[in-house]
Input
Amino acid sequence: MDTGTHLVMGLGLFGLAQLDPVVASDLATAHAVLLGTVVGSQTPDIDTLYRLKGNPAYIRNHRGWTHSLPMWLIWPTLLTLVLHFVFPASNTAHVWLWCFIAVLVHVFIDLFNSYGTQALRPFSNKWVAWDIINIFDPFLFILHIVGFVIWWFFPSYAGFIFSSIYIVIGLYLIWRTCVHHRWLRWVKKQVNAPGSYTVIPTARWGQWNCVYETQTEVRMGEIRSGKLLWTGQLTTEFNHHPATHHSKQAEAIDAFLSFTHYGYPQVIQHPFGYEVRWLDVRYHHKKHFPFVAVAILDNRYNILHSFVGWISEGQLEKKIYEMMSTTNK
Output
């Protein structure tokens, strides 16, 4: 999920922690738990620092090892050790428990969007993404804000308020899961042809994106007002092009493919060589692919330049123009 959602969930978990008698009765422990749930709800996303090493490193590592099974225990332990020095009188066991819950909730809720995590590492590097809610879900965010307002007026009922909120969230996720599977079955029935089907959430409850993949083509569409609207189509003819094969040697393309199984190449030939664009079809929107990787190769398929990232259509064209200008020199 986005940083804002993780933040409000961290604060909400502190409200829930008021059900813990030790937290509710001990001021030092309460202060430590407040920091623990807020910081713990953000800690798995510390891999954002990989941005300093460039987009390929960030894309390869974001939601990777920092969300893995061992880190579910390591993060709360490290955080509890730090909090023990700040609040030596706090109850270490209860601080660790709530830090652990914050980290666990962070990883768990991340599984429900289309980006997903590598939560099964080190046993599997597979990306787990359930495609149930958008990376920013207005309902989850607003529900927490409502909880904070009620908490302000009824400070003694924090535990009851947020236990009720998290029950509602649990029911909401179950409902969204049922809706997702219902739309997936519906799309399969509408197309009524063999292939691979994916239904992807958006920020709007009534609108979903979908992807239909076959050996020869991939189609992108939207479900709006109970209707299936196809918004784009790509051919798979470039999958086996020599330039496509050699483009995978570029660091940017390798990082892109390590993250997504929905990448499709498009090859454009130029006098100096080839331009290979890898497009993640999950995020197709208004005829644009915001998550893309590009490799520029010469006529002998040597990598000249490469790029990967989230980018607007105008910025992408400018980036490619700059890479080609350098190549032509």
Q: What stands out?
A: The mean pLDDT is 93. Residues 242-328 form one domain.
